[in-house]
Amino acid sequence: MNIENTKAQMRKGVLEFCILSVLKEKDAYTSEILDTLKNAKLLVVEGTVYPLLTRLKNDGLLNYRWEESTSGPPRKYYGLTELGKTFLTELNSTWTELSDAVNIITTKK
């Protein structure tokens, strides 16, 4: 059994929730999202995030706008739609329930 594969699958399982959570406070461009995830020690590569952002946009959870940048090409800023905010609220509830259940099971003596 490959522990690295299992750890990667666990990270992928919560990545959507984490990206939506990053965007709940303010709109952000992809590099900001990646930096926030990396600062939290959630190791993610760009090749994983870009398709996920597109899928979340296509599902109506995110929208985006282009903004000029003083240090390069225009940047695509992502933000939550109303549907995205509702979806994130549901994910928060589910995460709390799941986390509580896992903690009960894994901390049993």
From TrEMBL:
<dbReference type="InterPro" id="IPR036390">
    <property type="entry name" value="WH_DNA-bd_sf"/>
</dbReference>
<dbReference type="InterPro" id="IPR036388">
    <property type="entry name" value="WH-like_DNA-bd_sf"/>
</dbReference>
<dbReference type="InterPro" id="IPR052509">
    <property type="entry name" value="Metal_resp_DNA-bind_regulator"/>
</dbReference>
<feature type="domain" description="Transcription regulator PadR N-terminal">
    <location>
        <begin position="19"/>
        <end position="89"/>
    </location>
</feature>
<dbReference type="Pfam" id="PF03551">
    <property type="entry name" value="PadR"/>
</dbReference>
<dbReference type="InterPro" id="IPR005149">
    <property type="entry name" value="Tscrpt_reg_PadR_N"/>
</dbReference>
<protein>
    <submittedName>
        <fullName>PadR family transcriptional regulator</fullName>
    </submittedName>
</protein>
